[in-house]
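[Solved] Which block belongs to which protein?

Original post:
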Amino acid sequence: MIEQTIQRAQVYYFLSHAFLYPQTSWLEQLPDALRIFQELGMQCEINAANAIEDYDLPALQTQHRLAFGLTGSQCYETEFGLPHEFRQSQELADIAGFYQAFGFRVGGQQRERPDHLATEMEFMYLLALKETYALENGLIEQAEICQQAQRTFLRDHLARWVHLFYASLRQSSQTRMGAHVNENPYLELARLAHEFIMAEVLRLGIQLEGNSLPDMKPTPFNPDFSCAGCAAAEPVQ
């Protein structure tokens, strides 16, 4: 059980770094990640593997900008399907509450919002790591607390929207790449992330409410997340 918990932590760590703007090529770690997927009982393969392995770092950075730039898919949980901006603030506060309870701080050299996919993946990595430590030291109650936190965070947050993120990215990638859609490294990464999170949902016995992308409307615009209030954004007279 401890070995599987370590492997799950490794997967979360890989995914959390791979979705950030690349400073190094995560494709180099992909074979190890796929091996861990298989050891966890997941039959994951990469479509058009030879095609995406040809991306060097500058090309991978370009693909990240295309996938997640202003015209690409949203990487933020609270951009999907909330009724109003006040609910968005509530969800962000709930996420921040999880982080604070387990000593997880958002920051570092690559700063992102608490609801960014990479941030939520890194939090799950931390919980799995804490669970591993508790199991190795016979701290059964603490291990159960970490397991319950993973179950609750997946149910209320990460697993609730990762399928929408994948569907949104696939939709935008098909528009941009057409028949070559499976050569998009970030679409393949999103598919792996979706399959892994759904395996976690099954493993933990989580019940999810189903939502599909056509039924979702973007969360209404929150000016606090924009430059709209800045004097520099005012039109020149």
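(Second protein starts here: sequence line, then its structure tokens.)
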Amino acid sequence: MILDGLPQPMDERIRGRRRAVKWERGRGRRTALSLGALAVLCAVAFLALRATDVFAVKRVVASGAEQVTREQIEGVTAAFMGESMLSLSTRPVEEGILALPYVEAVRVRRGFPDTLEIEVLEYVPVARLQSASGTIWVVADDGRVLEGVSGGQFADLPLLVPDASFAVQVGETVPAAIAEVLPLAVMVRSDELRAELPELAEIAVSAGGCAVLVLEGGGELRLGAPERLDQKLGVALSIVRQCLAQGRVVEYVDASVVDRVAVKAK
């Protein structure tokens, strides 16, 4: 029987759905409150740990360094010793290490609880460069000046002797005319060419970048401008081998133009 004007009993299914919605809303509020409380506790714990020396930097471990000395690395990292690992930014450490002449790339990691881990990639020396004043510089394949040396240091590297004066400092790049000849310094150090090439005294470089391999005893391999150096060197070495097989001494091989080679031998 339906009674007009009076409220009707609520369908049990509708009532159940409403209870479920209310429960979910309540659970969502409780979860949000719990997460908020947890975030506050984590922040408090983080601040507390950062204020203690539990994670203070106490050690520095470096790998990949051969020319870069431990003293140089310690000089850069000294300012960060004792700083909390939790607040330490690795960027200033990386920038400091990158400023060292031999460092091409660096990666700094936090080794919890108290260690800075530094991985270094160094420039590789490929040649010595003699200035007009007699100063000898060691340079990388991209022309970066790595250090000044004296005596017999790096004696196994080819010696470049420009006929024009230049001014460089450690960390700077050599003039373009010299940098373009550096691939030749790399070539003459290969085991194959060392076996074929007579003893090399120096690599003379003109102001325009033309290269001449000066052999011990005065012979010359004139390779000209720094284009197609590998082909020019190959042609010059072929002629040197022929002359040596005939018992002749090479005064010069001019391979500055690959298809018009000039030779003087006796």
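Accepted answer:
You had them paired correctly. Confirming on the second one: Residues 125-265 form a domain with the Rossmann fold fold (CATH 3.40.50).
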